[in-house]
Specification:
Strand content: 15-25%
Radius of gyration: 47 Å
Number of domains: 3
Distance between the termini: 95 Å
């Protein structure tokens, strides 16, 4: 649609300002083709406005809806219709009751089987044994001693040792089979390797971690 036709449409719709209306009317007066277009559109609008409007029949909506393609029912709707639709309510209520009872029986059986299976599986699971390992360190002048290692995520306050009368600090820790790195922490700041350790390993900070190997029982 060119600009002139667009302005003619706006003129008929009453959407032009007085200045725009004067401009398009001047163009129409000087252009016979535009005048014919305006006359034709004006006549069409007049016919539409004066034409008789036929009443819509009451069955119009139902006829249109009847010609539309049928909507597919969802799985939930199919189940609902099967059990509760009026035309099959009499016998489907009995069927529904039987289905509910059957579902309860099956669920109870599955639950008992699963519970029994879980108990058997749990009973057959191998229980990993632990060994009680005793650590000793002779530091009679220390005020507190703790042990830190892989087994307690290197927490210096996780395993505090007890001082004996002979100046030896001791602790017993239950450990599962494996290889552990550990060190003693004296007075919260001095890290010492275990002089009785089986072997040692550099920790990358200038110290040597003590190595402990706990064998399976």
């Amino acid at each position: 649609m060119d600009k002139n036709m667009e302005l003619i449409h706006k003129l008929l719709d009453g959407e032009l300002s007085e200045e725009e209306k004067k401009e398009i009317l001047d163009r129409i007066d000087s252009d016979p083709v535009l005048k014919m277009e305006l006359d034709a559109l004006s006549m069409a609008v007049h016919i539409v406005e004066k034409s008789e409007r036929l009443p819509v029949p009451p069955s119009f909506t139902s006829n249109v809806m009847g010609k539309l393609p049928a909507r597919k029912s969802s799985y939930r709707e199919k189940v609902w219709n099967f059990f509760f639709k009026d035309r099959v309510l009499r016998w489907n209520m009995v069927t529904a009751a039987a289905a509910v009872c059957l579902a309860i029986i099956i669920s109870a059986g599955v639950f008992k089987f699963q519970k029994k299976h879980d108990l058997i599986s749990y009973a057959n699971m191998p229980v990993e044994s632990t060994s009680i390992v005793k650590f000793n360190l002779y530091v009679p002048d220390a005020k507190e001693v703790a042990i830190a290692g892989d087994f307690n995520k290197w927490k210096i306050d996780g395993n505090s040792m007890k001082k004996q009368d002979n100046g030896i600090w001791t602790i017993e820790i239950p450990l599962k089979p494996g290889v552990y790195n550990y060190m003693f922490v004296v007075d919260g700041k001095v890290w010492l390797s275990d002089p009785n350790a089986e072997s040692y390993q550099d920790d990358g900070f200038g110290y040597k971690n003590s190595i402990l190997k706990v064998a399976k029982l």
